[in-house]
Design goal:
With 135 residues, this protein is mainly alpha-helical. It has one domain. It is 76% helix and 0% strand.
């Protein structure tokens, strides 16, 4: 298989994008500098949605892209509302970096705009990947 053909395989492209976006997403959580608050609390939400769109598309390759985007938006929206709930077991999870990264620690209505934008971007990324035809 040629390198050109490899880059047209959907699974390869999805994994390649995941390998790029995952460290970038984690970096947004520790970034210090200009626009720090926006990067830490908003840009990360946008990347988080793209990440999950890619993961779901790999796990369920036959699922329609629009369903993936909607499912990711609904699930992350539910996680956002869970941030209003503070039982002891969730507070313990939220004390860790991974816990704060995956389930969050404070509710913000503005996150939903970034979730929507990330799901739209995920939809278009997956659509573009699916239009590529392997040789």
């Amino acid at each position: 298989m040629s390198i050109k053909a490899l880059f047209k395989r959907p699974i390869f492209l999805k994994v390649l994008i995941l390998l790029s976006i995952t460290p970038l997403g984690f970096y947004t959580k520790i970034y210090r500098g200009p626009f720090q608050e926006w990067v830490n609390y908003s840009l990360c939400d946008f990347l988080y949605e793209i990440f999950w769109c890619l993961v779901i598309s790999i796990l369920f390759p036959r699922m329609k892209i629009i369903r993936i985007a909607i499912l990711v938006f609904i699930i992350t929206g539910m996680l956002e509302f869970m941030q209003l709930w503070h039982p002891p077991f969730l507070e313990i999870i939220r004390t860790t970096f991974m816990g704060r990264t995956f389930i969050g620690n404070h509710f913000m209505w503005s996150d939903f705009g970034y979730y929507a934008a990330g799901c739209v971007a995920g939809y278009y990324i997956l659509s573009a990947i699916n239009r590529l035809k392997p040789e």
